[in-house]
User: Fold this.
Amino acid sequence: MTLLTRPIVTAIASGKGGVGKTVIAANLAAWLAEQGYRVLVVDCDLGLANMDILLGITPAHTLKDVVFGDKTIHEIITPTDAGFDLIPACSGVKEMGQLIYEKVQLVKDTLEPVFSQYDQVLLDTGAGISEVVLQFNLFAQKNIIVLNREPTSLTDAYAVIKVMSQRFGRRTFAIVVNSARDEKEANRLFTHINTVCKEFLGLSVDYLGYIVHDDAVPRSIMRRSVLIHDAPDSRATKRCAAVARAVVDWDPSTCYGPAVSPGQSRSGHVAV
Assistant:
C-alpha cells in the first residue's frame, strides 16, 4: 500500500447522540491502522468524551491539560491497543464543553502541526450543532454524518447538513447508516435524507454504506474492545471494512462550494 503524502482529516458527526458515531470512528480507525495507515483519532466531544472508555484506557492527560494546563499536544497523545493514536478529551468538565471561540481556535492551532505525522486523522465530534461541534466539523476535509432508523436521527442529521451548508458554504457530505436491519433499510434511509437535502438545500449527499445491526457490537462495547478485533468474522465487522474502504476512496475536494470563514454567516443566524 502506498501511504498518503498529506494527512486526510475526516470529521465523523451526528445530529443526535446515541447513534453509534464513536463506535464507528473507533472501528474505522482500527481498520485503517490494520491496512498500514498511520492513524490519529481526536476526541472532539470535549466535555463528554467517551472514546477512551470505549477503548478501555485511562489517559494520564487530556485536551483539558492543554487548554487550561501546561501540557503540550504531543504530551497527551495516547497509543491504543487498537493500533491508532488517540488525543483524548475529558468528561464532565463544563468549561471544556462550553469553550469560547478563542479556546477552540487554540485547540485547532495546536492540533494542526501534529496531523502531518499521520496519514489519516479522524475527528470524533460531538453531536448536534453547537458552535464547538461546528468548528471541528469545519476543520475537516471530509464530513461524514452518521444516522440510524430513529426519526429524530434523520431530522437532526439534516439539521447539521443544513447549518453547515447554509451558514458555512459546505456542499459535500457523506452518510453512513448505522444499525440497519439490512441493506434495503439502509438504502431507504439514505434515499430519504438525500431527497430532503436535494429538495430543500439544493445538494445531494454521498453514501458510504451501512453497518448492519449485530449483537457483536454491544458485546465488543462491554468488553471495551474494538469490534473488528473482538469479532473479526462478524457481519458488522465486514460492513465496517466496506465503509472504511469507501471513506478512503471518497474525495469531496472538488465538490465544495465557496467557503465561508468560521464564525461568519452568509445571511446572519440560520434557524433550523
